[in-house]
Amino acid sequence: MKRDEFITHLESIAPPELAEDFDHGRIGLLSEGKEEIATVCCALDATPYVAEQAAAGGFDALVVHHPAFWMPMHGVTGRSAAVLRPLVKADVNLYAMHTNFDHAAGGINDALAEVLKLKDCVRMDATPNSLGVVGTMTVSFSEMAKILGCGLRVWGDVSGVTRIAVAGGSAFDWDLIYEAVSLGAEAFMASELKYNMAIESPIPCIEATHYALEAPGMAALARREGWTFIPDVPQTSIIE
Predict the structure, then answer these.
(1) Region 29-43: what's the mean pLDDT?
(2) Single pTM value for the model
(3) How many C-beta neighbours within 10 Å does residue 114 have?
């Protein structure tokens, strides 16, 4: 299909108006490539490795979740050049869908709830900035850790937890936690937890890695659309 048609399709999946204000100018088509798009790959991040793989694979477009560039640029150097160089050379389009895909039905958070095998799910949507899903656990926390491929850092006693809120990315936020409680959540799982929130939260906090919580959403998108998912898993370990 033509590039404009492809963008229209992506916007039907994750409407730009769902994005939060800070994403203005950071989502959508970030780097223009070829006009005709037949083969597509996607990833969580536009890392130099992912860009090289997209170019080497002969793809026409790379769709990512996180914006590739957070700050305005007056020159293309360093990491920005390492990302753009292979894509521009191979004429690969680069497109980002961030918080609009977090909020979209079937997006990051719905996919996370599905991969963690939650049932009786309710989406968190009390405010325009709400994101996440509350659902009933059908597998243990140990099994969740295996599914996600990362260790879980737990603050509080989760031995009796059966209903949990999950939100992709750095989603530990007071409003979200209290909304989760109002929906019957007994624990809250996200990434990048701050100490004060960990010790003051009304329910236990469970911290996974940012990648582990959001990559399933992009992998699920790739399966639905018939695209190729390019993993780029950060190397992490737990030392006890």
Answers:
(1) 97
(2) 0.94
(3) 16
